[in-house]
Design brief:
The complex is a heterodimer of chains A (408) and B (270). Chain A has 408 residues and is an alpha+beta fold. Chain A has one domain: Cytochrome-c3 Hydrogenase, chain B. Chain A has 17 helices and 7 strands. Chain A has a 4-stranded antiparallel sheet. By secondary structure, chain B is α/β, with parallel strands linked by helices. Among the domains of chain B are: 126 residues, NADH:ubiquinone oxidoreductase Nqo5 subunit (Beta Polymerase, domain 2, 2-Layer Sandwich), CATH 3.30.460.80; 58 residues, no CATH class. Chain B is built from 6 helices and 8 strands. The chains are: A alpha+beta (408), B alpha/beta (270).
Amino acid sequence: MQQTNKLRPFFENITFDRDDNEMVLNFGPQHPSAHGQLRLMLHLQQEQIVKAHPDVGYLHRGMEKMAENMIYNEFMPTTDRMDYIASSSNNYGFALAVEKLIGLEVPRRAKVIRMLLLETNRLMSHLFWLATTALDIGAMTVFLYAFREREYLMDLIEDYCGARLTHAAVRIGGVPLDLPDNFMGDLKKFLDKLPENIKDYEDLLDKNRIWLMRMEDVGVIPTEMALSWGCTGPMLRASGVNWDIRKEEPYELYDEIDFDIPVSDKGDNYARYKIYMEEMRQSAKILYQVMDMYEGTGHELMAHAPQYVSSSKLDMMTQNYSLMQHFVLVTQGMRPPVGEVYIATESPKGELGYYINSQGGPYPYKLKLRAPSFWHTGVLTDLLPGHYIPDVVSIIGTTNIVFGEVDR
Amino acid sequence: MRAYKPKGDVQKKSYYTDRYWVAPQVAKQEVFSDAVFNADLEAIKSKFEVSDAYIQVEQMVLFINPEDNFDVVKFCKDELEYTQLSEMSAIDWIEKEGKFEIFYQLLSMNKRKRIRVKCFIDQNQAIESVEKLFRSADWSEREMYDMYGVIVNNHPYMKRILMPDDWQGYPLLKTYPLQGDEFAAWYEVDKIFGKEARDVIGPEIRDSAAVNRYDTERFARLGHEVPKGTELNVGSEEPETPLGYQEEEGVFMISKFDEKDSVIITDRDR
C-alpha cells in the first residue's frame, strides 16, 4: 500500500495506457543533449512530435530574490552564474545598468578592456556552442578542436582576472585591473590562427552529409514566431530580422568600430550554424580594432564618483576621506538615485536585459533579469511539433540555451 | 518582550541611514522632448486614459488603467510598431500601497525605441493576459504568477514555471523571507519521506553557512578528525589529530614540479 504523500515508483518516462496511439515521452531533465536541466514532455505519434511542453526550473536559485538582499557590488559575482559560458557579458550588462542609473561615465581604458572581455567571451561562448552542438550530432572531432581553441581564451581570461569560468571581471564604474603584459600578444596569436581554425570546422561540417541532414530545413523558425516569442540574438537574425543591439543601440565603443551583422532568412538550424560561424569572424575583426584602441588611453580604470565608487588604492592609503568613503561603500553599499532603468546588451545568446528599480536604498527594490535563453526555451513549445525525435537534439543544440540563465 | 519586527517587508534593510539623507532622483524628461515618443503618446492618449508619462533613461514610461492593458499593448503592437515584448513582470508595493505594479517592456525595431507600459492592480485583482499578442507573455505571465501570485485571466496554461507545482507561497513577495519559510524547510522531507519522518530527519538547513562540529556525518574539524559517523557528545573534546603538510613529509605518489627539468610551451603551433 502506497502512502499518498510520498513519491511513488512508477514508469515515469512512458505512459502506455492511451487509446489514441499517442505516447508521452519524458526527455530529460537528465539528458546529455538537454544542455543542463531541461525536461521536455513530448507527445508522440509514432516518431513525430505532436505536442511539446518544456519544463524548466531545475536550476532555479532565486537570483532576483538574492539581488533584493544584496548591495549592488555584492550582486556582481552572482551574475556570473547566469550564462556561465560567457560570464563577463553578464557582469557587464549589470554594471552598465547601474552606471546608467547613476549616470556614470567610464574611463576610456576601462571601456577598451571591457570590449576585449566582451568579445573574448562571445568567442568563448560560440566555440562552446559549436563544440557541444557538434558533439550532440556526433561530430566528435569538432568538439575536440573547438574546446582546444576555447582553452586558449580561457587561459587568456585567467591571465587577466584569475578565473576561468566565473570571471567577475567588470566592476560598476570600470574594471578592477589593467591588462597583463602578455595579454595583447597572446590574443593576437590566437586571432591570427582563428580563421584557419574556423576553416577547419567548416571543412568538417559545411558539406558533411550527416550534418546537412540534421541541420538543413530542420527547426525552421518563421519571422513572426521569432518576434512573438521574444527571440533575440542569432535566433532572431537567422529568421530574417536584422537586429543587433551592438549596431542599433550602440553601447561602449561599438559605434566606433566597423563590423558586419550576419543575417539569414532561412530560419533553420543550418542558418543559425552559419551565423554563429560568421559572428566568430566578426568578433575577431572587432578585437583587432579594439586592440589598436588601447594605446593612447589614460591610466584610469575606474570612474571618479566618490559617492558610488571607491577611490584608487593610492588615494585610499594616503587620504583619510577616501578610506572613509571606501568603508562606507563596502559596509553599507552605494545608494543609487530613485528611479528605474532597463538596459539591454547583446550577450552571445541574445538580448540580455537588466531592469532595476531603485528606491534610493543600498539594495535594489526590484531587479528583473531578462535572459535570452528563457524565451529560446519557450519557443520550443511551438517549434518542436511536427518534427521527429532526432530533430529535438539538433534544435535544442542550435537554440544555444544555458540553464543558469533560463532558471536564474 | 521580544522587539516587534514588521512583517510587511522582511528583505534586508540598511542598518544605518543618515537622518539628513535625501535620495536623489534619476532625471525624468517631458515626453514632448522626443518627437517619436510624443507622437506615440498622443496616439495612445486619443484612445486610452494615460495617468502619467515621462521619459527616463531614454525610454518612455507610461501609466495606464489595468483594465486597458490588453488593448493598449495591442494598440502598441498593431499601430505603433512595438513588435516585441522584451520583458514583463510585477513589482510588489503591497506594504506601502497594497498594490502590485505590472510593467510591459516593449521594443520597436523600426523606430529603435523602447517603452514601458505600466499599471497598478490591487492585491487580489486579476489582469488580462497578453499572450494572444505576444507568445513570450505565455512564459512571463506564468513566471509572474509563480513569483508573485498575480492571477492572469485567459492564460492558456496558468501554472507555476520555476518553482515546483505543489509549492506554497510566492517567493518574490516582500513578505517572503530570503531563506524560505516554514513550508520550504519541510518540503523535501515531507515529499520524499513523508510527514512522519520529520522527527528523524529534521528541517532542511537553509542557511548555507551553517556548520555543526558535533555532526560527524557531514562535517570534519581540522586537527580533530574522527571516523565518519562517530557520536560526539556536546561539550566533549575530540582527540587531536596532527596536521601533516606535504612540504614536511611529502605525499608518496606526488612528485614536486621542477621548473628546471620542464619544457614551457610558448609556440602554440608546435
